[in-house]
Amino acid sequence: MNERTPEPAHRLRRLRSSAGMRALVREHRLHPAELVLPLFAVTGRGVCREVSSMPGVFRESPDMLAEHVQRAAELGIRSVMLFGLPDGKDHEGRSALDPAGVVPQALAAIKKAAPEVVRIADLCFCEYTSHGHCGPLDAAGHVDNDATLALLGQQAEVLAAAGADVIAPSGMMDGMVAAIRRALDGGGHEMLPILSYAAKYASAFYGPFRDAADSAPTFGDRRAYQMDPANGREALREVALDLEEGADMVMVKPALPCLDIIRAVRERHDVPLAAYQVSGEYSMIAAAGACGWIDAPRVMRESLIAIRRAGADMIITYAAESASREIREGRFDA
Ligand code: PBG
Description:
Number of strands: 10
Structural class: alpha/beta
Bound molecules: ligand PBG
Radius of gyration: 21 Å
CATH architecture: Alpha-Beta Barrel
Order of helices and strands: HEEEHEHEHEHEHHEHEHHEH
CATH superfamily: Aldolase class I
Number of helices: 11
CATH topology: TIM Barrel
Strand content: 15-25%
Distance between the termini: 44 Å
């Protein structure tokens, strides 16, 4: 008589028994071409200064950026996102409209050194205004939405003329995509795509970025234009509107706190979807790793694959280079 104890009807562990078996049934993988490397441009020559709250992230002059992008390209990275730190700031952020400004200089230097790399230009005023808000202020001290739209159109034209390959507005102004599309088309740049920071939350995870880009608001916060982290449906409205206005790609930001939003956008829309693993996400992993509290490379790999699993096509991450190296070394598939 066969006296067997009741067996589990299903044994999912069968397919977890070896590295080869796990690789065979793995649902998601990353490729360096899907990672976007954010870069901080400053003026000058030979400048490369580490951001204190972001180990491994630097503010670099155009010549150093050019070499940096060449090294990144050797790792398989094919696109970068540029932020600029101007020499001077004023109330309106006029240096953002300088055709010889820091981002136009960086765009040119990178084009020369690594012509194949896609240069995405972040479009916002917070790095350029003396008050650190994302556009000019009205009499009450609020960002003036419609005045900002006109300026964003001008900034987009400047960056387009400087050779940007993608324009990525990040200021969460209503109507920004339509205004930028109109300006670009009017200037003969109808083929230049827009990656909209469509669902961008008013997040405390941006803290280290504001050190890096010197863009913290000098008063108040960004909750009157960026989204409330308590809201999910509103993100879908933001995305739908940006697509209606002509966005070619949309972004959800931050990434790990917004996996549900990434998934919801993925299910509703068929456009390319980016997720931004922001500065705080990066720095928390780096800091806990430095304390010996977590295995930082493993936590980074797990975070990136979770963002992919949620539905992002591309990930903007400060870990683009280390992750690309690990992808090449097969560590994501170990
Ligand atoms: C500019 C901008 C910010 C980030 C990207 N573009 C800062 C902000 O909105 O305060 C944050 C990126 C990061 O934290 O890595 N508006």
